[in-house]
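[Help] Beginner question about ligand-bound structures

Sorry if this is basic. My supervisor gave me a protein sequence and a SMILES string for pyridoxal-5'-phosphate and asked me to "get the holo structure". I don't really know what that means in practice or what format the answer should be in. Inputs are pasted below exactly as I got them.
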Amino acid sequence: MGLKIFMDGQLIEEDQAKVSVFDHGLLYGDGVFEGIRSYNCLVFRLGAHVDRLYRSAEGIRLEIPMTKEEMRMRTIETLKANNIADGYVRTIITRGVGDLGLDPLKCAKPSIIIIAHKISLYPDEFYEKGLKIITAKTRRNSSFALPPTIKSLNYLNNILAKIEATDAGTEEALMLNVEGYVSECTGDNVFMIKNGKLITPLIESGALEGITRRAVMDIAEIKGMKVEEIMMRPEDILSADELFLTGTAAQIVPVIELDGNKIGRGNVGEMTKNLIEDFRVLTKTDGEKYAL
Ligand SMILES: Cc1ncc(COP(=O)(O)O)c(C=O)c1O
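Answer (accepted):
No worries, everyone starts somewhere. Holo just means with the ligand present. The predicted complex, written as structure tokens, is below.
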């Protein structure tokens, strides 16, 4: 038996969950989404994910036909219906069915889709040995074109950079904004540690307001670490003691090399290891609980 998918008000079988070829989510990437994780029946920072989903929707003037409270409830309902304690939820809001023209006003009603799946974990090696990454030639979208704070269904900017990463035999690629400052990676935020300080690019540099990013900053502040958001230059990274990426799926992944240059001593840093451990602890308490 396949998964049960929440789609437009009801849970349906996976093979029945289909979108129209006239949905503007498909035709134009017109829509928004979220990636959410549950840990042992605790949905990590669900409220923050739902808030970001609605902010993204507002950013493209899409009104989600559901309250935030119901969205949280439906997320949990979908996890429960699939008997998932540890999983990954993909919530998708498409503009809905329209004609072949661009006009979103001609789309009848946004579609709400929630997919709850077992999480496919990254190999342990990523965390134990750290990643080697490259800087992509593809620049992050300008905020004047498509603000990176909007988690839209149009991820081609990130995909182009991801292709560069794959071509280079790496897992991730660092993206700079059009001015040449560091923004983020294709699907993760980026952090460096220098002289005991935690430093990350400002959201204004073209980064998504990552839920994991915020959580790591919260942890660091509680530990008494100094946290700074800056306009980060690529050369700042080369002088970092430690480097790591954050994201819902990846959590915290150490990076040991950028464009062939070693970061720090070229191995996984102690402070990064500590943050990984603290984050693991946080996922046991910080979320919305459900029972199976
Ligand atoms: C472009 C981009 N940056 C950063 C992130 C990390 O954000 P979060 O920690 O909320 O998953 C993601 C993943 O959602 C992403 O797609």
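A couple of things worth pointing out: The domain at 4-118 is CATH 3.30.470.10 (D-amino Acid Aminotransferase; Chain A, domain 1). The chain is about 30% helix and 30% strand. Feel free to follow up in the thread.
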